[in-house]
Amino acid sequence: RQEQKLAGKKVLVTAGGTMERIDPVRYITNDSSGKMGFAIAEAARLMGADVTIVAGRTSVQPPGGVKVVRVESAQQMLEAVQARYGDSDIVIKAAAVADYRPVHVHSRKMKKSDDKLVLELEKTADILATLGAAKQGQFLVGFAAETDQVEQYAMDKLNRKHCDLIVANDVSADGAGFNVDTNVVQVYGPEGLVEALPLMSKRETAVRLLAIIAARMERRHSG
Ligand code: PMT
After folding, report:
1. In the chain, where the domains are located
2. Binding site residues, as ranges?
3. Is the Cβ–Cβ distance between 29 and 95 less than 8 Å?
4. Which of 30, 159, 169, 179 is catalytic?
5. What is the pLDDT, as a whole number, of residue 1?
6. What pLDDT shows up at residue 40?
7. Does residue 159 carry a catalytic annotation?
8. CA distance 49 to 4
9. Could you say which residues bind CTP here (predicted)?
10. Is any atom of ligand 1 closer than 6 Å to the C-beta of 166?
């Protein structure tokens, strides 16, 4: 039994990948399985938190004992998260959100015609940045999936998006990132590197991350 360090706290976790529709049967998505976000949700529940998951497309089952809100697109994820933001103490954004979506969503299945097809894409809303700009005391944790210059990009995201922590994920490292049961992450705070976690299960990664969050929240309240 874990220590109930998050008892009474409302934790909102995003998990999985968004799906951006092209037509009724086709969409753009990514390899996120939901494993990382679900592991965080489960670990938070075991620490006594009241947990809600906003989940996109996932390939594993969510944990029991938590609320699950299903969404498809980045826009729907934004709306679902915004609706619950004011009532959340901790928000952890482990989802892999599409950066671009098709400009036109065809209402009927697209027909084959020319040899080449160009899909026009437009930027999606940046959910993490939107939350960062609207912060009212929430503890905001972002992820950063990078393949190079991990520290520089992580610190840049932390500052630009007003996060309290950034979990940097070198998704090119063995046993790390999308769709595997393990991860290798470095946790950054406003002061720089907080902890570099070695290769471990996503469950264990989640427990270690939540321990850092709980300690910082405790310090915030006592200081
Ligand atoms: O689900 P799994 O298979 O277990 O894989 C886990 C994971 C690799 C998906 C996860 O550990 C991870 O790294 N998630 C973040 C992936 C990502 O989209 O990273 P990014 O660097 O593109 O985005 C940075 C942050 O901004 C993320 O917190 C993301 O949720 C957020 N974002 C991104 C784009 C956007 N339009 N809105 C956002 O809020």
Report:
1. 10-101+118-222
2. 99, 109, 143, 157, 161
3. no
4. 30
5. 55
6. 98
7. no
8. 8
9. 99, 109, 143, 157, 161
10. no
Chain length of the chain: 223
Residue ranges in the chain whose pLDDT is less than 50: none
In short, whether 205's Cβ falls inside 6 Å of ligand 1 is no
Q: How deeply is 208 buried, as exposed, middle or buried, from its count of CB atoms within 10 A (0-12, 13-18, 19+)?
A: middle
Instruction: State the residue for tokens 């009212």.
Output: 136
Give the number of the atom of ligand 1 that is nearest the alpha carbon of residue 176: 8
Superfamily classification of domain 10-101+118-222: CoaB-like (3.40.50.10300)
ipTM value > 0.90: yes
Phi-psi region of 65 (alpha: psi -120 to 50; beta: other; left: phi over 0): left
Distance 154 CA to ligand 1 centre (A): 12
The pLDDT of residue 221 is 82
Hey, is 108 helix, strand or coil? Answer: coil
Question: What angle, 0 to 180 degrees and rounded to 10, lies between the N-to-C axes of helices 35-46 and 202-222?
Answer: 50
Q: Are the C-beta atoms of residues 40 and 13 closer than 8 Å to each other?
A: yes
d(CA 115, ligand 1 centre) in Å: 34
CB distance 145 to ligand 1 below 6 Å: yes
Residues 131, 162: Cα–Cα separation, whole Å: 8
